Amino acid sequence: MTTATVLEFMHRTADDETLRQQLEALLGVGDGNISSETELDPDETAALTGDRAPVVAAFAAQHGFQFSADELITVVNTFQQHQAGTLSDDEFGRILGTSFTDSSAQAQSQVKRLVKFLSKTYLGIDLA
Description:
Number of helices: 7
Oligomer: single chain
Number of strands: 0
């Protein structure tokens, strides 16, 4: 699964006003900022996990982000469950493709990318 690409696309909606406005128009709900679980409102979540998922995946592909509608739905559902407190941090990381128990260099790199993404998204901290 390419959750990293989904996350990159979602994160870009916080930084790219044009992309955000286009996504807002495409969804027909919300503000187009789907960059984190706290930014996703219930209407955006419903649209992204419903009949708009394939349209959003195709839209993302036009902007260089290749992922399936199923991958988008998985990430959005994971965000929703984590925000609701029904998914632990470890399970959240596992679903999004990061193993917190694997000590390999690749896993450490994934953890660092995820921490950087989450820090910037949730706390506004840029860990360059």
